[in-house]
Amino acid sequence: MVFTVILFVFSGTIILLFNVAIDNYLSTRQTPAPVIQQTQPPTLTPKDEPINDNRSRYANQLEDIKKYSIYGLFVLAVISLALGYYISGRFLKPLNELNDQIFQLKSNSLGAQIKYPPDNEFGETMKYFNEMSLRLQKAFDQQARFVQDASHELRTPLTILRTNIETVLDDKNASKTDLRNSMNDALTEIDLATTLANDLLTLSRPQSKIRDPENMSEIVSESVAMMKKIALNSNVSIKLIITDKNIPVIINKSEMIRAINNIISNAIKYSAGVKSAHVGIVVKHLDNNVLIVVKDNGIGIPKSDINRIFDRFYRVDKSRDRKTGGFGLGLPITKKIITDHQGKISVTSKPGQTEFTVIIPIHK
Q1: In CATH terms, is domain 123-204 a member of 2.70.150.10?
Q2: H helices of 234-307, where?
Q3: Domain 212-361 carries which CATH code?
Q4: pLDDT exceeds cutoff 70 at 280
Q5: Is there a shared CATH topology between the 123-204 domain and the 212-361 domain?
């Protein structure tokens, strides 16, 4: 409709200017000559009569053109309206169908796919909409599962905490030792709940904007030094190999140390109890990246679990409780930190060996 109005206005303007030009032409041609007093009226020669007839004929023709142009303007308006209605209906029909289907989608119907013929003018748009709908469904499902898992994990320490308090309050003969033991148990549960809350905040908050020039070789060395005592207590040896002493990166130091600690801690945890348990760590410069490899000779990760170890609240060893196996948030946090630094993390595993590979872009 808008294009029809524009076409009508443009055509009307052209015709109006054309008519104004005709009026100006006729007015100049019909301007009477100045009156000159003559004693005798002028006489027309036979030669002048054809000239006057031609002028009169041209004037009549111009008047006809002017009249027909006005009629043509109205005809053009009708034609343009009809064509505009047909063309807009032809091209906007698929878009209207798309709008109708989108309007019918509700929050409980995310992932629904819009049907469209392959030769549809808006086929690409509808294809991208279907892909977006699937991504939204996946995101909402992950969010719902995350909330359920977080609620379940938080409910356990809160339940234990409440039980301990109620037990002490109901036991009028409780000794100071009983009270102290109950309070210690309560503090343990509070610490676990606090750790869980902090981990959840780490996963949900946006990436830190703080980035500083650091040496990745020193970062990994510092992380290994922090984890050596834990490894010693678990009878696991750690060997660090650094091929390049200076690998410059732009990172958040505290976040990166936490990510590397999580990987090493995970390797130690699942190597403990294995004969001659050891964890090998290699740091080297590879192209424009720093490559960090953490390899252990632990129990390994089953094929059915390896694609889920970065999922929140997922634990490979179901026999471990939250006190010995954590909440299943360490590796998800690690992946988030690394991806926030434009890096990548991957894992390969088989019985008796697991290898984590981390790639972080270096700073030249």
Answers
A1: no
A2: 253-269, 303-306
A3: 3.30.565.10
A4: yes
A5: no
Q: Report pTM.
A: 0.56
Q: What does the CA dihedral 243, 244, 245, 247 come to, rounded to 10 degrees?
A: -140
Query: Under a CB-based contact definition with an 8 Å cutoff, are residues 77 and 8 in contact?
Result: yes
Q: Which of 298, 269, 263, 299 shows the shortest CA–CA distance to 281?
A: 263
Q: What long-range pairs does 269-272 form, CB within 8 A, spacing at least 24? A: 269/234, 269/325, 270/296, 270/298, 270/299, 270/316, 270/317, 270/354, 271/234, 271/236, 271/296, 271/297, 271/298, 271/299, 272/234, 272/235, 272/236, 272/298
For residue 278, what is the DSSP state?
Answer: E
* CA triple 87-91-93, angle to 5 deg: 115
> How confident is the model over 326-364, as pLDDT tens digits?
667 778 888 988 998 899 999 998 888 999 999 999 875
Q: Average the pLDDT over 137-149 and give the result.
A: 72
